[in-house]
Amino acid sequence: MNPDAVNLADDAPREPFAVRSLLSADDLTAGDATRILDAAESFFEVSRRPIRKVPALRGKTLLNVFFEASTRTRTSFELAGKRLSMDVVNLSASSSSTTKGETLLDTIKSLEAMQPDLVVIRHAAAGAAAYVAARSTPAVINAGDGTHEHPTQALLDAFTIRRHKRDLRGLKVAICGDILHSRVARSNAILLGKLGADVHFAGPRTLIPSAPESLGAKVHYRIEPALEDADVVMMLRIQRERLSGVFLPTLREYSRTFGLNERRLALAKPGAIVMHPGPMNRGVEIAPEVADGPQSVILDQVEAGVAVRMAVLWLLCGG
Amino acid sequence: MSEVLLDPAGVAMSLRRIAAEIALAGRRRALTGRATEPPVLVGVRRGGVPLAERIAAFAEEAGSPAMPRGVVDITLYRDDAATALPSVRIGPTRLPTSIDGRRVVLVDDVLHTGRTIRAAIDALFDHGRPAAVELAVLVDRGGRELPIRADYVGLEANVPHDARVEVMVKRTGPRPEDEEPWALVMPASGPGPSSAQQEAV
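Above: the input entities. Below: the structure tokens describing the complete assembly.
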């Protein structure tokens, strides 16, 4: 046989995806994350076809259980499931029996009797998804548990960065704003760090968690040093619902000291991209001219969300 | 030791003949008043892709107008997609132009159960409504499980149902177009890395 000749059949990776439930960005190795992002590239292509649906997960059931309000994430998971031909059932807290006094575990147990293959859960309590995963058979995806984690958001952010910057290794990523209450910041610091990015947090002292170094990020109490020479600027929402007034004197002061405007953005590298997990408070953490400016990739993030969640559903279902 | 079913010269000769037959069928279609646009050659990932490139090159060499090339990935259309044990990499599906109303020739390396082709046809129809779909394969090894046949066949071989038949390529560069189909072999029996995939689809 000619030593230069190769067999195409030997190219594909064959080890099954080892992750069963996605509760934290820490559940993923850099290799797992890369595999999700690579698969998402293909699903991104599916979302741009005339017929945006493939039969891959026909006959599988996805249960979307949302105990906390969400438009973007719930719709994104719903669309991801539907584009893979799954049967998708949405359940939101207002319509569920929790308002009638049922416990989380009882709700989950009765839903489990409907034999879903995957459960996506959002809950206001940190650790809720892990609690459910430990006590039920279907695979569980954490779609946000309080101020703890939101791993699929970190994956879609990584996907968006990769599409614009090719490789995450060595990129300076500034995550700015309310780090303390942000599950997005936590998951992103873990995941982007694993993928080789240099993560910087910036926020007022009152909104930085007590041991930020444990997430592998460098911390700044002013926004400017984080922005200097950054490749990626990720602004976080000021979560008015989680701030009871003791964290910030006024929103106007916050906007003046930590808001991203064109002048501050000029500190970053010329081709830096601006991200925001949404929903935005225009004029508070981000100026409208930046949010709608040429460096903003905020809408790309939303589009990436569907593709990345398709990849997660596909791989967790044994794809 | 593996058995060589087609050596490099045999592969080239088969593909050259297939290219001529595809062009001839096009002229026959034109005589009956159907559209004369060149067909779209769509390789089934991975094995069919370098073959489609080669067939298109041979057709152009013989004076046919350039045939647009595309790639179809069937991973998400497999009948065992959700239960398949080995995790395969999903590749991109790329079609050069709209396939609505076009003649499409699917190109694959080995035709066995027919399940891959069933999946490829389904995938194709999610991109449009071709006027006709034809099938070209380098080898038809028999063992069909679905009512599917090839229009253009390089080699017909009766192969034991548990044997593997594989196309070897020579890489001349990093791009998929740089893979030159080189030989058709039947590796010595034994569970190889690709047997599961080939049985399943």
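Note for the figure: The domain at 25-150+303-316 of chain A is CATH 3.40.50.1370 (Rossmann fold).
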